[in-house]
Structures are given as C-alpha cells and as structure tokens.
User: Fold this.
Amino acid sequence: MHAIIRLDGPDGPDTEPPTWATTDHLTDAVRAAAGRVLVHTPYSPAVGELTLAWGAQLDIRTLHADGDGPDDDAVAAYVAKYVTKGASDTGAGTDHPLTTRHDIDTAPVTTHVRTLIRTCWRLGGLPEYGPLRLRAWAHTLGYRGHILTKSRAYSTTYTALRAERAHHLGHTNTPDTITERRWRYVGSGHTPGAALIAAGIADDLANNRESARAATTDRGWA
Assistant:
C-alpha cells in the first residue's frame, strides 16, 4: 500500500503549513501513526479474532516541492510507478468473476495469486464473513474498490474528470457512466467480405511461394 501524505495549513490545502512544520516532523508523525494503528477482525469460530497492523517494512520518502507547493509531476509519476508495479507484481487477479472452485485451478495466474484467491474463496464460505462478499470478489483478491483512492481536497473526483472529458469532447451534459456486466457472444473470424480478401491474399502468397520454388528448381538448386 502506497500513500502520498502532505501537511496543509490550518484552513485547508489552499494555505501554507506552519513554519515549524518540516518534512522530518511529518515523517515522524507518519511513522508514529503507522506503529499505533490496529484493526480487529470480526470473531470467527474458524480463525478466531485477528489483530491487523502495519508491518516493520515502512519506507518513507520525501517528494520534492517547488516554491508553490507539491510538484504535481513528481506526485503523478510516483503514483503511476507504484500502481503499475503493484499490478504487475500480483497480476491483479483475473478480469472476470469466478463462479466455482474449479475456476481457481484453471485461472491463468501465478501460484502466489492462486493462493490468495483460494483464501478469499475459503473465507467467503464462512457465514460470519458473508457481508464481505469475498467469493464474489475473489477474482480481485477480495478487494472490491478502485485501485486508487483520492482526497477531494488535494486531488479530484471521477465526477469532475468525467465532466472535464465531456467538456473537452464538446458535450454540454456529462454522460452517465455505463457499466456492462453481461457479455454475449456475437461471433468470431472474418466477415464475409473480409474472408474473400483474406482468401485472395492467401492464394497470392501460395502462388508466390510456388513460383519461387519453381525458379529455384530451374536453376538446379536443391
């Protein structure tokens, strides 16, 4: 999990932080907060009650700032780097839901990801974890949110991004988000016209190969 944390002024992101606030102070605050956070899972007869906390591997780095505040390019580059790195490391599960346990065995994922999916499936079968819908989201390793969350004060929202995109395309109204959850098979292969063109190209290639072979034979080459 990667987070960009900054210290704003007393009236929000549009005001400068206090003069005494340094990167060292912010680093100490983050380290202290990470060491104190604890989350207790709901009790389960199968696994008991677990206490979740951050591990010892805490890597805090300073993002350099310009005279007007955080460097947006540096922030964007940092986020893009670790989002893609995290997705490539885990494979991000599969791109479709799993309906049976057999689907886990045949999924084109690494052994590590398959183990995570199996754990989601096993825990999802426990009544006490039913509200988490772990089996429905086992293909995304139990996580049903977006890969990136944003602060409204610092960043932006998807609604604002859709409005900006609509404005760029010349729309006066922001189009509603369309989510298609059911796919249907339409067909595969060439259309009739494309099939004729492909067949003609295949014939030309075959004729060219035959002509080249005949020319080689006429020259006495084996």
